[in-house]
Amino acid sequence: MSYGGPPNTSEKRQIIITDKFANRIIFSPFNFKLTDNIKPEFQSYDGFGRMDSIMTYKRTSRDASLSFKIVAETNEDAKYNFKELNKLILAMYPSYNGVSAEEPASSGGTSPAVATATITGAATSDYNSTYIKTAPLIRISFMNLLSDQKFLAVINSFRYDMDFENGASTHMDENSNAYPGMITIDLSFKVLHTYLPGTKNIYSGV
């Protein structure tokens, strides 16, 4: 089993995140942890002489968090992981009308883990002529734990740490670029249900 790097077609342990443009971001996780918090909410009404309140169902909300590490076994793995991290960072932001995304990196992903954008027909500082076209929603799947990408998700928080002391780290290549050998990712997200989960008899993950 491999940890990190380009996905192996036979590898089933993969976290797959689909962004607003239907681009797939794929990680092979190591040392992962999933926390799921499902919260039914009721409105209570007190009646005169009643021992208990009348409970009226309001909704069920669902929040989850996923943390994992990706470890590069080779320098190529480190470059791949860095490129996928860039794509995940981009997934945290909306797309805009009249804005075209620039390539965040040339071959190998040589720019920092951020991307820039240019506004078509306007100065970079003029945001009045643009509007949000697509919100930064994602779909996420991970084996049977986060299954079938049936739920949309809103990212509440996203944190990553780069470790250059473990894995196949590149402190400086011929182009003066550095690639971490291990990346730790922490995602917290709210689930947006797109079908009625209460109609299923078997729980099959988020």
Describe the protein's architecture and organization.
Strand 1 and strand 2 (24-27) form a beta hairpin. The chain is mainly β and 206 residues long. A 7-stranded antiparallel β-sheet has the order 2-1-9-10-11-4-3, with helices on one face. A two-stranded antiparallel sheet has the order 5-8. Strands 6-7 form a two-stranded antiparallel sheet. It has 1 helix and 11 strands. The radius of gyration is 21 Å and the shape is elongated. The longest helix is centred in the middle third of the chain and has 16 residues, at 75-90.
Task: Report helical residue fraction.
Answer: under 10%
Strands side by side in the biggest sheet: 2-1-9-10-11-4-3
Low-confidence stretches: 103-123
Order of helices and strands: EEEEHEEEEEEE
Q: What is the 3D form?
A: elongated
Q: How would you summarize the topology of this molecule?
A:
Layout: E1 15-18, E2 24-27, E3 30-45, E4 54-71, H1 75-90, E5 95-96, E6 99-101, E7 117-119, E8 132-134, E9 137-142, E10 152-163, E11 182-192
Antiparallel strand pairs: 1-2, 1-9, 3-4, 4-11, 5-8, 6-7, 9-10, 10-11
